[in-house]
Amino acid sequence: TSIPRITLNNGETIPQLGFGVYQIEPADTRRSTLAALEVGYRHIDTAEMYGNEQGVGEAVRESGLDRTDVFVTSKLNNGFHSRTDALAAFEQTLETLGFDYLDLFLIHWPLPAVGDFVETWKALEEMHASGRVKTIGVSNFQPQHLRRLLDETGTVPAINQIEVHPYLTQDNVRAFNTQHGIVTEAWSPIAQGRVLGDPVITAIAGRLGRSAAQVTLRWHLQRGDIVFPKSVTRSRVEENFALFDFELTADDLAAITALNRDERTGPDPDQFNWIP
Ligand code: NAD
After folding, report:
1. Average model confidence (pLDDT) for the chain?
2. Of the residues 35, 102, 112, 206, which has the fewest C-beta atoms closer than 10 A?
C-alpha cells in the first residue's frame, strides 16, 4: 500500500495515515511501534507527555528502516512553555528518542490562562531555524490562539492537531486552518471507539463490507485530514491501515458529518490549563 502524502506550507510532506501511541505503556511501546512499522505505517505520533518516546526511537532503529523513511512527531509538554524550558525540553525529546532531528514538533496545548504560547511559538521558530526539526506546528489551538500567532510572529504553523471525529466535526477550527494554509490532524479519530456502534456508521460499513473503524478513518481521509489511530492489537493495527481500496460516496460523507454533536472525549482547549 502506498500512503498518500500531504504537502505542508513549508514544502515538507507527511504521510496522511500514521500510528498514535497515546496510552501505550512505555514498556509496550517498542513492540507496538515495531509492529506498526512492520504493517507499513511510516508516521508515528508521540509526545513527551505520553512517557514513551524512548520506545518509539528504539522501534524505528530496530525496524531497520532509514530514519528518513519514518515521519516522527513529538510534542512540547505543558510545563515547558518558557523559551529556555522549551529549548531544553526539545533537546531532551531528541535525546530520549535517540534522534538527531525530529520531523514535526508541536506545542501540545495552548494553556490560554497561562498566556505564554506566543513566546513558546517563537522558541519553536528557533528550533526550526537550527535545522533540528523540519516542521513546527501546534495542537489544540482555537482560532483566537492561531490569530495571535499570525499577528505576532513570522511563521504560520504547518499543522494544528485537534480532536476531530464524527461526534465532533470541528467545522470552525478546520475552516480557519484551511483558510490559513494550516493542515488539520484529527486526534482520537474514532473517539476512542465511541463512534463505532453508531447506526449510521455501521450501516455504511455493512453496505461496503468494511468495519466501522475503517469507514470512520476513511471519512477523515476523504475530508483531507491526517489521522493516526492507536491500537496495541495487531489485527486492528492492520485493519486501520487498510483504507485505500474503497471509497465513501458524497452522501456517506455528508451522513457521517451530520452526526456532529460537539461532543468531546478530551478537554476543552479554552478551559484546559493543566501543568503536570
Ligand atoms: P483513537 O480514536 O485512535 O482510539 C483508540 C482506541 O480505539 C484504542 O485504544 C482501541 O481501544 C480502539 N480501537 C482502535 N482501533 C480499533 C478498531 N479497528 N476496532 C475497534 N476498536 C479500535 O484514540 P486516541 O488514541 O486517543 O487518538 C489517536 C492518537 O491521537 C493518540 O494515540 C495520540 O497520538 C493522538 N492524540 C493527541 C492528543 C493531543 O492532545 N494532541 C490527544 C489525544 C490523542
Report:
1. 98
2. 206
